[in-house]
Amino acid sequence: MHETPATRLPAGEHTKRRSRCAGWRFVFSAVLVAALLTGLVRGFLVDVYFIPSASMEPLLQEGDRVLVSKVEDTHGTAQRGDVVVFDGRGSFDPITDPRSVPERLVAGAAQWLGLAGSDTVYVKRVIGIGGDRVACCSDDGRLTLNGKPVDEPYVHPGDAASDLDFDVVVPEGRIWLLGDHRSVSMDSRSLLGAAGGGLVAEDRIIGRAFQLVWPLDRYAPINRPAG
After folding, report:
1. Residue 185 annotated as catalytic
2. What are the helix (H) ranges across the chain?
């Protein structure tokens, strides 16, 4: 019985194959490292969020994307006037999620890519922090903070400070939030009669929105109000 001799590749072909394999391994490694670094940055430093509604107009419009700092403004450091992204479960939303696992995975991927908002993540402005008394409205129609009228240049033109009267003392560890487009915003006022009274725990804050990045023609910093 005769054995069929193995086909020998030219030395140059072996070199080319090794180079191609090495090239693909490098590309795969580079993509993996980039994905890991991106995940770490977005998980712990800065993330991007999609604005799903008109509740923060005129500052933020539906479809905008903002950068959110996760380094600052977590537990105990939120400031009045900050625009924050927060997890509304347990306050604005039920703590349970009725969606199936595949639905949650698809929604989570779209949110991570900045293509959609989240049903339980909100963007609002901090109006009161622990110990504050927030009320509306004064005789001249303004919101008051600890008995003093507040100037709110960020409120949507034509909107009242609030169409709903309220007088709330914010407990320590909680925040009171309103949208800038007061006439269309579902915010702390909407939950006055619910459990928790529309107050959000500080540890539910994901981060402070500090930069509008999309669309490019409105690229601008999101500054903290003076004072």
Report:
1. no
2. 11-44, 101-112
For residue 16, the 8-state DSSP code is H
Quick one: which of 157, 131, 124, 161 has its CA closest to 146?
Answer: 131
> Of the candidates 161, 170, 164, which has an alpha carbon nearest to the alpha carbon of residue 134?
170
148 is catalytic: no
CB distance 65 to 214 below 8 Å: yes
Q: Return the DSSP state at 146.
A: T
- What is residue 45's DSSP assignment? T
Q: What is the pLDDT along the chain (227 residues), one digit of tens a residue?
A: 555 454 554 555 556 556 666 666 656 555 555 555 545 445 545 788 999 899 999 999 999 999 998 776 445 578 999 999 998 877 776 544 555 556 555 555 555 555 544 567 899 999 999 999 999 999 999 999 999 999 999 999 999 999 999 999 999 999 999 999 999 999 999 888 776 778 999 988 999 999 999 999 999 999 887 75
Structure tokens at 144: 């008051």
Catalytic-labelled residue, pool 69, 91, 124, 185: 124
Return phi, psi of residue 18, to 5°. -60, -40
Q: Are 90 and 199 in contact (CB under 8 A)?
A: no
Catalytic residue among 55, 91, 162, 188: 55
